[in-house]
Design brief:
270 residues, alpha+beta, mRNA Triphosphatase Cet1, Chain A, 8-stranded antiparallel β-barrel, 34% strand, disordered N terminus
């Protein structure tokens, strides 16, 4: 599966088919238990496609492709929400250590698995909480008909309902093609996220022909993410090419929001 990436801000129509030391890094967040989140660590690296091929070849010897990835990869599409002050965007730029962002996520433009997610960051640790949504619930939220959320019993629905009432709204769609590797029952995940693209001329996340803009500023690059709980096994110490892989803090959400701002400016009329 591939996408026509083009240059920064280039409009692409249609859906894509279908330097740090890693060894021994420990997570000291919450442990899994009833009502307690299990925090994980995330490292992000900007690499080129040649490096991706080398690293993927190494990973095939010690890890497995996620069984959910038919053909070895899938399209991830996320609709991010922000408030009238652009808090999610601004807090990320300012490096606020404790923050949350909210999104609706689907795969391959299908409604077979839809999730409302809250991604919480506490300093260097990440926790993601999610609940399933139906296609109708998703369409209602995007269309501003979110009153049903107040009748749900889970904390995320209640919190998201109050945020929507306070002015939170759909902000930008983030697309990318992901090759996911898993190790030891999912305690370690390494993903290659390619052809990051932004959509903001409409929020029909199920539309495979939604116009998207290339969001990768440096040609021939992609984002490798390393996610793990507790600690990363030593077997991965050679997974990153030291001189070539630069650890980055930028998020795909910010990258795609920047494209919208480059095209329309900071003031977005809704």
């Amino acid at each position: 599966m591939s996408a026509n990436s083009g240059n920064l801000g280039e409009l692409v129509f249609g859906q894509a088919a279908g330097g740090g030391q890693l060894s021994g890094r420990a997570v000291q967040g919450c442990t899994m238990g009833e009502g307690k989140p299990r925090y994980r660590h995330e490292l992000k690296y900007l690499i080129n496609y040649g490096e991706k091929e080398i690293l993927a070849d190494r990973l095939r010897k010690i890890a497995s492709i996620d069984p959910h990835a038919t053909g070895g990869e899938y399209l991830v599409r996320s609709l991010y929400f922000d408030d009238i002050w652009n808090s999610s965007y601004e807090e990320k730029l300012m490096g606020i250590p404790s923050r949350r962002k909210y999104r609706i996520r689907i795969y391959n433009c299908s409604d077979s698995h839809i999730a409302l997610e809250c991604k919480e960051k506490q300093n260097e640790y990440i926790y993601k909480f999610s609940i399933p949504l139906t296609r109708r619930e998703t369409d209602d939220i995007i269309g501003g008909r979110y009153e049903f959320l107040k009748d749900k019993k889970d904390e995320l629905s209640q919190e998201f309902y109050m945020l929507l009432r306070s002015g939170m709204h759909p902000d930008v769609i983030v697309d990318y093609d992901r090759i996911p590797f898993v190790y030891e029952s999912g305690t370690v995940r390494i993903t290659f996220d390619m052809h990051v693209r932004a959509a903001f001329n409409g929020y029909d996340i199920f539309d495979p022909g939604l116009p998207v803009y290339n969001a990768m500023q440096i040609p021939d690059t992609l984002i490798m993410e390393v996610k793990f709980t507790e600690f990363l096994p030593d077997i991965f110490q050679d997974i990153v090419i030291p001189r070539a892989a630069a650890e980055i803090s930028s998020s795909k959400y910010v990258m795609c929001s920047n494209i919208r701002r480059d095209i329309y400016g900071m003031e977005i009329i809704r």
